[in-house]
Amino acid sequence: RNSWDCASKVIRHEGLFGLYRGLLPQLVGVCPEKAIKLTVNDLVRDKLTSGKGEIPAWAEIMAGGCAGASQVMFTNPLEIVKIRLQVAGEIASTAKVRAWTVIKDLGIRGLYKGSRACFLRDIPFSAIYFPTYAHCKLKFADEMGHNGPGSLLLSAVIAGVPAAYLVTPADVIKTRLQVAARQGQTTYSGVMDACRKIWKEEGGQAFWKGGPARVFRSAPQFGFTLLTYEILQRLFYIDFGGRRPTGSQVKVPVQAGEIKSSNPDHIGGYRIALATFSGMETKFGLVLPRYNVSA
């Protein structure tokens, strides 16, 4: 009936470990998948950013969409093997279903069954996720433009909520195409065929089945993924001529007006020193005292 009903039945019939079916292929495939996705987004985003560090909304969406498309070569085989293992408990059989058995049965071509639906899910997801994440980072940055671990995690989790939920219809279609239909169950020949049959037999609400479960899985998953990615970038940053991620450095005033004191009797020594020493704590691990300049 819903996510809670599904979870309770899995635990009742298969035990707690039934909730972790398909974990191994997920662990094996998620590393290259996320590596490609994050790299492509940063690469395209950097190319479309102006010399002033500005990027239009369409460019943010395009960078995210390119990232989503690039990961399907890893995502689709991973998804179909994971799904086959997850539903194996529903089939009354003494033979234990393993990942390698599923791969041999499907073959190379079979591993990419439902790839069109996978594109329809992953491209919009990333096109929504990465621009939302970037804007949330700016919103939650401190007065110096710096993002700490807390604001990074919060931004990534918030961005995952609309991205995960809005692509639920594509995920439902992909799952229907990739799961092995049993005797008496409806079979689907493609994306449009699945759309027509689901709409006719189950109604429009069927396209949103599992939406909350997707949010509860994807939002924290991408939250910790992006947090880890950002921290590793700061620790092991290599300059290839691009730009550092926003929020990774304290914003240093560069205009004369920014360092000019608001007090006519004050020569602005603190503000000049601020421009000189800002960012030292992120570079050398120093913690400098903060002072408020009275107006």
Automatic annotation (TrEMBL):
PROSITE patterns: SOLCAR (PS50920). Keywords: Calcium, Membrane, Mitochondrion, Mitochondrion inner membrane, Repeat, Transmembrane, Transmembrane helix, Transport. It is found in: Mitochondrion inner membrane. Its main location: mitochondrion. GO terms for cellular component: mitochondrial inner membrane. InterPro entries: MCP, MCP_dom_sf, MCP_transmembrane, Mito_Solute_Carrier. The keyword Calcium applies. The keyword Secreted does not apply. One of its GO terms (biological process) is malate-aspartate shuttle. Solcar repeats lie at residues 1-47, 55-139, 147-235. It is a multi-pass membrane protein. Belongs to the mitochondrial carrier (TC 2.A.29) family. Homodimer (via N-terminus). This is Putative mitochondrial aspartate/glutamate carrier protein. It comes from Amblyomma americanum. The lineage of its organism: Eukaryota, Metazoa, Ecdysozoa, Arthropoda, Chelicerata.
